[in-house]
Specification:
The complex is a heterodimer.
Chain A: H1 2-44, H2 48-72, H3 77-93, H4 97-118, H5 122-125
Helix pairs in contact in A: 1-2, 1-4, 2-3, 3-4
Chain B: H1 2-20, H2 31-66, H3 68-90, H4 100-118, H5 125-147, H6 149-156, E1 160-164, E2 167-168, H7 170-175, H8 180-189, E3 198-203, E4 209-213, E5 236-240, E6 243-244, H9 246-251, H10 258-267, E7 275-281, E8 284-289, E9 294-298
Antiparallel strand pairs in B: 1-2, 1-3, 3-4, 5-6, 5-7, 7-8, 8-9
Helix pairs in contact in B: 3-4, 3-5, 4-5, 5-6
The chains are: A mainly alpha, B alpha+beta.
Chain lengths: 126, 302
Amino acid sequence: MKKAIILTIILLLILSAGISEHFFVHKTFDRFKEQTRSIENAINEDDIETALEKSEALLDWWNKKRVVIEAISYCQDARQVNVVIGEMIGSLKCGDIENASSKIVSLNELTDNIRDILDFNAIDII
Amino acid sequence: MQYTSARRTFFAANAISHRRFPFRLRATFHPATLNATYLLCFFLIITHIGRKIKRIAHNLILIKDNSDMLNVFLRAIILYFFLLVAMRLMGKRQMSEFQPFEFAITLVAADLACIPMSDNTIPIIYGIIPIFTLVILHNILTFAAIKSHRFRKLINGKPVILIDDGKIDCDILKKCGMTANDLLESLREQGYFKIGEIGYAVLETNGKVSVLQKFANAPVTNADLKISGGENALPYNVVVEGRFMGETFGYINPPLEKDLIVKTLEKENMRVRDVFLFSLDGNEAFIQSYDGRVVNTILSDK
């Protein structure tokens, strides 16, 4: 009986951890998308200063979230996000708006991929 | 009346506070104030512990950046303990007594622990979750196997007769993927070197071979010789490595007093701490001291 209770608790912990992870991933990447969209808007309006400011804020925010993501899930691409944001910041500092807009596209693709990997879906089970 | 009762409670609470706190509290403190003080102390302690944990976690993160080997070392320790808990939850069976599904689960669990142990990029939780999922699955399967005979047969298989009435069944042997040498080896492991003495041999679901000798070769028992009067009792180890085995005393029937053990030891000029093993079989005692002295005696309080 004691063993059954322990196992039930473990099962509930595993399930709740899985569900929490699912929501955490969704929330994080929704927030990420919002931020990249606002950077994209600033780039489209040729507002380099705002885009740079927002990109740096995004990098800081992502660094905090990445620690948690790496602790709970396995995704090598998570580190790649830093590189792409860094490249975008570099381009903005050089005033290369075209390169920055290409970086924002690849950043969006990259985060979509990560979200897809970390997300709970039937295809990943197979 | 009510006032007196309230006063009593109030002073009792303050009296407790005097005992627990290192500093003196005035008797005029109201119980509610004391509760608030307790809560505040508790909160401060928790906050302090929280800060400490945060600092340790921060240091560990720094270590992660600097030392991969230390990371692997800590991961191995953590996973070892989780694996230990998982194995304890799986049950008490020995490796050789594993059923096929238990063996598979154990192998997979061991492998799952190895992957995050050596690869720092994989979160440790990726090892822990599947291990415990397997433990849960194992317990569900075991429970189902206990409850349903048909299910048990499905996952464990059924025993097979390899030697039937003194004759080896070659077809069955082939079906089981065993050679004649494998069979002979299994029989020798059981202590049977002459195949002519064996009446029946059964290949059990856990892969072991059980043997029943022919009637003519079966060992003679006390019942065959009609010997009666003796009794087989379960021996109890009452003192092991200089310490009383408290739990063992609960099983001994009729109950045994520790004084009797001490007296028996005194008769042999020994103290409990000098004894390596004190084993009791009925009232026959086997005593071995640390200095190698062996005494076989009868337990009596005279």
